[in-house]
């Protein structure tokens, strides 16, 4: 249902809330969920790959390109172990830099500025929750609505465990979608998908980054998935004993990903999300990342 000032008035809905997130985290999350994993391979990823000029060559200094080449040597032997050979057919080796550069103008809800998706002024929101403090913010909003009991048994670690299982199930099921089954059969094996899921969780700070994924000898999908879940559970338990190390690995990946973005493109990003940074209190996040990447004064940012 689209927004209607008459229907969605303050008298009918006195409590109105909006959930926001650091724009940089949203971008990185969209990349990991939709491009590093399989969701957008048959659509946005292939579109980006097919836009490359005829004389395009991979940038060897991009750490994700290096990662993809190593991955291809393991899983794309039918293509002589080169990540570039399987690009146009599957679109599965799009780097974060390419995603930011080529997805910039796309009106895609997963990475559009939040104020364009849900204008807080138009909706006259009463509360703004942030993903970074979601549980605390949700308690305030629910208390306002007399529903604070919903979060009485809230457990962050359990929420992460549930998120991990949901992502695993979704991606394995996605490869069997009726209209895409043939595409995925040619483009990804269960073992490669498990390998990508492992790195996705590692880069998100969900598992112990010092534990490596052991690629199984078997290839049957059900066994690969079951084995992945067991390995993830062990790495998760190991990581929970040292959460600071998981957080460090997450931040290191974020920094490495954004280091592949040239200054000019980074400045375009800050302009694109400028209202989100200002409206929702993320200017400090923007400034810290900019300074760490380019070591310049804030006045040089835009």
Automatic annotation (TrEMBL):
The keyword Membrane applies. GO terms for cellular component: Golgi membrane. It is an enzyme of class 2 (transferase). It is a single-pass type II membrane protein. GO terms for biological process: carbohydrate biosynthetic process. InterPro entries: Carb_sulfotrans_8-10 (IPR018011), Sulfotransferase (IPR005331). Keywords: Carbohydrate metabolism, Glycoprotein, Golgi apparatus, Membrane, Signal-anchor, Transferase, Transmembrane, Transmembrane helix. The keyword Cell inner membrane does not apply. It is found in: Golgi apparatus membrane. Belongs to the sulfotransferase 2 family. This is Carbohydrate sulfotransferase. The lineage of its organism: Eukaryota, Metazoa, Spiralia, Lophotrochozoa, Mollusca.
């Amino acid at each position: 249902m689209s927004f209607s000032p008459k229907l969605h008035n303050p008298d009918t809905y006195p409590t109105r809330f909006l959930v926001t997130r650091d724009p940089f985290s949203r971008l990185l999350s969209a990349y990991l969920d939709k491009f590093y994993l399989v969701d957008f391979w048959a659509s946005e990823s292939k579109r980006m790959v097919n836009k490359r000029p005829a004389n395009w060559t991979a940038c060897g200094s991009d750490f994700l390109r290096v990662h993809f080449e190593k991955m291809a040597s393991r899983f794309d032997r039918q293509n002589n172990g080169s990540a570039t050979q399987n690009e146009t057919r599957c679109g599965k080796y799009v780097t974060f830099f390419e995603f930011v550069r080529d997805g910039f103008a796309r009106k895609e809800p997963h990475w559009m500025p939040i104020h364009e998706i849900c204008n807080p002024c138009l909706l006259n929101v009463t509360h703004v929750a942030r993903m970074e403090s979601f549980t605390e913010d949700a308690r305030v909003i629910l208390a306002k609505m007399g529903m604070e009991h919903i979060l009485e048994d809230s457990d962050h670690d359990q929420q992460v465990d549930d998120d991990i299982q949901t992502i695993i199930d979704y991606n394995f099921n996605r490869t069997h979608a009726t209209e895409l089954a043939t595409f995925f059969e040619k483009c990804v094996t269960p073992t490669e998908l498990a390998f990508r899921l492992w790195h996705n969780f590692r880069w998100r700070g969900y598992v112990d980054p010092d534990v490596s994924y052991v690629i199984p000898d078997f290839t049957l999908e059900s066994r690969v998935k079951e084995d992945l879940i067991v390995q993830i559970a062990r790495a998760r338990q190991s990581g929970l004993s040292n959460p600071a190390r998981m957080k460090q690995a997450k931040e290191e990946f974020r920094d490495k990903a954004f280091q592949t973005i040239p200054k000019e493109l980074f400045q375009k990003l800050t302009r694109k999300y400028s209202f989100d940074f200002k409206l929702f209190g993320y200017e400090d996040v923007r400034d810290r990342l900019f300074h760490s990447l380019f070591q310049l004064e804030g006045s040089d940012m835009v």
